[in-house]
Design goal:
- The complex is a heterodimer of chains A (466) and B (276).
- Chain A has 466 residues and is of the alpha/beta class.
- In chain A, 33% of the residues lie in helices and 16% in strands.
- In chain A, the strands form four sheets. A five-stranded parallel β-sheet of chain A has the order 3-2-1-4-16. Chain A has a five-stranded parallel β-sheet with strand order 6-14-7-8-9. In chain A, strands 10, 11, 12 and 13 form a four-stranded antiparallel β-sheet that branches.
- The longest helix of chain B is centred in the C-terminal third of the chain and has 15 residues.
- Chain B is built from nine helices and 16 strands.
- The chains are: A alpha/beta (466), B alpha/beta (276).
- The interface between A and B is large, with 44 and 44 residues.
Chain lengths: 466, 276
């Protein structure tokens, strides 16, 4: 059999164009392209891709359906394991998961599983826009209330599975829209917000209730939710606490955490200021600190807000950058200036309290540290300054402490993460947790996997099995 | 959506609104705040809770019309709805039986000082209240404050009501005359709270200020409200809003309050054109 070894290309907006707009960068497959790509799947009997997927989508089956142009069947197969395929098709690091283990990868490019997932999901959304709604199958209502804390990927997938099992599910969300990091964190040009809302509307159709402006830990404690009649609680509140470097000048005007910068732009639509009321500083020279996906998102967002020059300052070398390869390439294509093996040591401000310079020190790599990556060591006397009028600190987040502080008996690890057993049950009976609040900042799909496992455990808990 | 049940004009540019927000009022405590968003395209602004009624399911906010958001909010009437009322947020003010305490409120800060004074009084404290207004026209909640204090001292900047001067002028005298003040609570403009802190510092009286930082999230996930307290960066929304006033870097706070001055002006001018 003559199999095409190369991945079917997907059209993208040109770098010189896209750096000036917030529209999505990859444009998706046409039907013909999708069928062509689907035909590259060998339908191998071992299907390692399914185990490579944190939510275990039956990948060969949905790809076979695409190949046979049975697109409705393809989406049904995906929906069995994942109700947000238009999201995960865009933001999953498939190259580290399903596609990393694809057998085709041994003789050529792995099958573009993520692209195919996105294709069927987008097709389904188009049909839904025309009023053709396919409802996932649901068991009979049990009349048992379960509370979900947070409407990010973990909470949504937990809610979806519980709703399918017939539970009466309420999601409590602190912000005014659902989606968590999908709406405040990931930028429009990587994940259009309209798509997130369309995917989430499927949950509302299944009877999941959303309560907004509700901060569990403040508006009501976990115990308060039990008092209100909920029989189990899932905490999926994410890793929302931004880390700073605690170096001089970090509180100057024009210095943001990536969370603040992205929340202003994505959730509050500051890129449309003054049509929208939330402001953002329009800067000429921006320094983004960090080398992860969030740093790439922040840098590319700063560019789209009109910055002339965006530095991305990272203390290790390009090889150690934790961001997805695709995002690094996108950032580079758009003209982000990588300042590698460098670390900020202080910010210098003007008389009004705004940042005007960042001073950095050059680094060299030493022995591997506990993370297995080579430890960066400052090179004495190598300090240098960059003129900037904005800095965005994207060096990571840790779990938000509000629930930990307000829940008696909840055991917490040394990084503020909630400790759970193999069923994702916490030290408080009937309270389960999953996603970034347990693991620290990870990926959308890992959180969704945890949400699904928690749903199973909650069902067993309610049945008295655990 | 959150309905405005009552609206009252308290003085020039000063408005009170009682909002239907049962989830907030159920657990609200003095010293906490809400983040509100007026409409779909609105920004999130923090407002300290001026009062709450658990049985009616309401919270009361008091605000001064300064920029676009507060002016727009001021145009809303009874029966209309706000997009979001999020809370209660922040840590409640720590209130025990201290003994003799002084509360110092300036302008719009008098509103949130009221529930704090009420709780202080109910815990058996001797409450000396010092409240300051710009002038007689701006005086509000005098009787309410009188009902929750043992001694009420009023100052206006121009002397048109009460004593002439700032709250700190009155505080200076109180500190000289009164013995055994255990704690001072202050809410008002940053510059006023700074002056209060400077004045109580030599007396070594623990002074608590409720900070009014700029905020976006209100729940500790963005850091817009960061402030230096005792040399450490804290988040006003989740670590505060109350802090030891003697340790707060008020100069940094005031600079950070001005970060968006230009944008705020632009937004306000545009709005004034639109509603003309």
């Amino acid at each position: 059999m003559n199999v095409n070894k190369k991945l079917t290309p997907m059209k993208e907006q040109e770098p010189h164009e896209r750096r000036n707009n917030f529209l999505e960068v990859p444009l998706g497959y046409t039907k013909e392209e999708a069928v062509l790509e689907a035909s590259r799947c060998l339908q191998c009997p071992t299907h390692p891709c399914v185990d490579g997927c944190p939510v275990h989508i039956n990948i060969p089956a949905f790809i076979k359906a695409i190949k046979e142009e049975k697109f409705d069947l393809a989406i049904d197969i995906i929906h069995e394991s994942n109700l947000l395929p238009a999201v995960t098709g865009r933001v999953c690091p498939q190259e580290e998961q399903c596609q990393a283990v694809c057998v085709m990868g041994k003789i050529g490019d792995p099958v573009g599983i993520g692209r195919l997932e996105r294709f069927v999901a987008d097709l389904d959304l188009e049909k839904r826009r025309k009023g053709e709604v396919m409802m996932p199958k649901k068991e009979k209502d049990k009349g048992i209330k379960v509370a979900i804390v947070g409407s990010g990927p973990a909470g949504l997938s937990c809610a979806a599975d519980l709703a399918r099992m017939g539970y009466d599910v309420t999601i409590f969300e602190a912000f005014h829209v659902a989606g968590g990091v999908l709406v405040y964190g990931i930028p429009e040009f990587r994940l259009p917000k309209a798509i997130v809302q369309e995917e989430i509307s499927m949950l509302s159709n299944m009877g999941v209730k959303f309560v907004f402006d509700f901060l569990v830990g403040r508006t009501r404690t976990i115990q308060g939710l039990f008092d209100d009649g909920f029989k189990a609680v899932f905490i999926g509140s994410g890793a929302g606490l931004p880390q700073f470097m605690h170096i001089p000048g970090e509180n100057l005007g024009g210095i943001y955490s990536a969370n603040e910068f992205l929340t202003r732009v994505n959730l509050m639509k500051a890129y449309k200021f003054p049509e929208f009321d939330t402001p953002i500083k329009k800067a000429k020279n921006v320094a983004v600190i960090g080398g992860g996906n969030v740093a790439m998102d922040a840098a590319r967002t700063a560019l789209r807000l009109g910055a002339e020059h965006v530095y991305l300052i990272y203390r290790r070398s390009r090889e150690e950058m934790p961001a997805r390869a695709e995002e690094i390439v996108h950032a580079e294509e758009e003209g982000i200036d990588f300042v590698l093996l460098s670390n900020p040591i202080r910010y210098i401000g003007d008389e009004k309290g705004f940042v005007k310079q960042v001073e950095c020190i050059k680094m060299q790599l030493g022995e591997p540290d506990s993370s297995g990556r080579r430890r960066p060591i400052p090179i004495e006397g190598s300090e240098f300054k960059l003129d900037i009028d904005e800095a965005i600190v994207a060096i990571g987040t840790t779990p938000n402490p509000i629930i930990a502080k307000t829940t008696e008996g909840l055991k917490i690890g040394k990084h503020g993460e909630i400790l759970v057993d193999e069923n994702l049950q916490t030290s408080v009976r009937g309270v389960f947790a999953g996603g970034d609040i347990v693991t620290g900042a990870a990926t959308v799909i890992t959180a969704m996997g945890a949400g699904r496992l928690a749903a199973k455990s909650i069902d067993r808990f309610i049945k008295g099995e655990i | 959506m959150f309905k405005i049940l009552r609206k009252e004009i308290l003085g020039p540019e000063m408005v009170l609104m009682e909002l239907a927000a049962p989830n907030v009022s159920k657990t609200a405590e003095p010293g906490q705040f809400v983040v509100i968003r007026v409409y779909e395209k609105g920004e999130r602004i923090p407002l300290t809770i001026a009062d709450f009624d658990r049985s009616k399911g309401t919270v009361t906010i008091v605000f001064q019309k300064i920029g676009k958001t507060t002016h727009l909010l001021g145009t809303k009437n009874e029966g209309e709805e706000l997009a979001d009322v999020f809370g209660p947020l922040g840590n409640p003010t720590e209130i025990e039986s201290f003994g003799k305490v002084v509360v110092v409120g300036g302008g719009i800060g008098i509103a949130p000082i009221y529930p704090i004074s009420r709780k202080l009084k109910s815990k058996g404290n001797e409450v000396i209240a010092i409240i300051g207004y710009r002038s007689k026209d701006y005086v509000f909640w005098e009787e309410r404050m009188r009902s929750v204090s043992d001694k009420l001292l009023i100052a206006t900047n121009d002397g048109s009501y009460g004593e002439k001067g700032f709250v700190t002028d009155v505080l200076k005298r109180v500190l000289e005359q009164e013995k055994g003040i255990e704690r001072v609570f202050t809410i008002g403009p940053a510059i006023m709270m700074k002056a209060v802190a400077d004045m109580t510092r030599p007396y070594n009286i623990k002074t608590i200020a409720s900070l009014n930082s700029l905020m976006v999230c209100g729940m500790g996930m963005c850091g817009a409200c960061r402030v230096t307290v005792g040399g450490e960066t804290k988040f006003t929304c989740s670590d505060g809003p109350d802090f030891d006033a003697h340790l707060v870097d008020f100069d940094e706070l005031m600079k950070r309050l001005n970060i968006y001055k230009e944008e705020e002006k632009l937004s306000f001018e545009k709005w004034k054109e639109e509603v003309k």
